[in-house]
Amino acid sequence: MLSEQTIQIIKSTVPVLEVHGVEITKRFYEKLFTSHPELLHLFNHANQKQGRQQTALANAVYAAAKHIDRLEAILPAVKQIAHKHRSLGVKPEQYPIVGEHLLGAIKDVLGDAATDEILGAWAEAYGVIASAFIGIESDMYTNSAMQPGGWSDFRAFVITGKKRESDVITSFYLTPQDHGPLAAFEPGQYVSIRIQIPGDTYTHIRQYSLSHVSGQPFYRISVKREDTNPAIPAGKVSVYLHNQAQEGDIVWLSAPAGDFTLDHTDSRPVTLLSGGVGLTPMVSMLHSLVAKQPNRKVTFIHAAQNSQHHALRKEVEQLAEDHPQVTVAWCYAQPTDLDSSEKVYHKEGYLDLPWIQTLVPSVNGSFYFCGPVPFMKTVNQSLIAWGVPEADRHYEFFGPSGALA
After folding, report:
1. Is residue 209 a known part of a binding site?
2. 62, 126, 137, 368: which one is catalytic?
3. Which one, of 261, 110, 86, lies nearest residue 191 by Cα?
4. Is domain 155-253 given the CATH code 2.60.120.20 in the classification?
5. Does the annotation flag 387 for ligand binding?
6. Is 399 annotated as a binding residue?
7. Domain boundaries, the chain
8. Can you give the pLDDT of all 405 residues of the chain as single tens digits?
9. Keywords on this record (predicted)?
10. What is the C-alpha separation between 141 and 153, in angstroms, rounded?
């Protein structure tokens, strides 16, 4: 436990972290990768270039400082990060390295304001927080390895199918190279895929949601090719998977992870809202709902640019046709002429609350949503305005966590 003096010192640094947090975390990653370049194998370099990882870490450090006297308040965030760490293969011996360079970054940025007293308090607090992560992740590694068909690190998988789902999304069907059983997973979870791209110095690890249901002889991920926006660095892994990976190739997967999962104990109506490639966990949830809760009303709402960018559409429409409790609705921002002439969508433009309310009769239900950050902000703010309580709003970021305020 932390002493009262340490708690007060940490809380006194909250205003400083609010101003200098991103600067500190940017300096932290510079120091970390300079001293330990091998850790670059664990990180998404595109997120580093965009500053998303630095901002996410700054938010986490700020939250830890703000709630240092009641760390249970940040336990959900700790568990979410721990899932990511377990799927990446983060090990206990890496935590002291992180602590050393985080304290060094605080000293570098704050200069003389980072007194020995402040650095000592942060060293003590980091030790407590790191111990919590290590303990939670140890349990996760054990549980992952002990479950039927499970494993703790990375396992070799064969690409046994590659299917183009839209102009920008392709599905990959993955089966274990050892032909052993597959661990079950909860709808909404993801796997980490580890790839060595020819000519690249570092291995690359990315998380992709599982887009089918558990119990199949394969895992399926549906990947968006991230090279269409010149303002954003191209995604090396997604481009490699689309352009070079072939059936028969070997990739390495972590066991399924993640806490953005469907609550099957809830029997109320459920609404699944997605934008772009954010539909992948929602399709998994839909498969699971019709299989396990055939009497539960489901509304599946998806926003895409147009039919050419709309993946897995026929699969979802077939599920809705086979299961009358499922309703689907499509929102196209820029429908093609053919889309318009054939009336293959239900709303043109962008998703908004009045339209959602025409599809979902009541706030009495659960809402799950995933997609680009602007889409999720719109959905979250709409649901808040409608009066949907926080406990019924479930969402996940693709990549480092952010804010939906």
Report:
1. yes
2. 137
3. 86
4. no
5. no
6. yes
7. 4-146, 155-253, 270-396
8. 788 999 999 999 989 888 888 899 899 889 998 998 888 777 766 656 666 677 877 788 888 888 888 888 888 888 888 999 999 999 999 999 999 999 999 999 999 999 999 999 999 999 988 998 899 999 999 999 999 999 989 999 999 999 999 999 999 999 999 999 999 999 999 999 999 888 888 888 999 999 999 999 999 999 999 876 666 666 789 999 999 999 999 999 999 999 999 999 999 999 999 999 999 999 999 999 999 999 999 999 999 999 999 999 999 999 999 999 999 999 999 999 999 999 999 999 999 999 999 999 899 999 999 999 899 999 999 999 999 999 999 998 754 445 555
9. Detoxification, Dioxygenase, FAD, Flavoprotein, Heme, Iron, Metal-binding, NAD, NADP, Oxidoreductase, Oxygen transport, Transport
10. 8
Task: Mark whether 202 is an active-site residue.
Answer: no
Q: Is 280 annotated to bind ligand?
A: yes
The reply to whether CATH 1.10.490.10 applies to domain 4-146 is: yes
Decide yes or no: CATH 3.30.420.40 for domain 270-396. Answer: no
Pull the structure tokens for residue 42: 């664990």
Catalytic residue among 29, 62, 95, 240: 95
- 13 carries a ligand binding annotation: no
Residue 86, marked binder: no
- Is 137 an active-site residue? yes
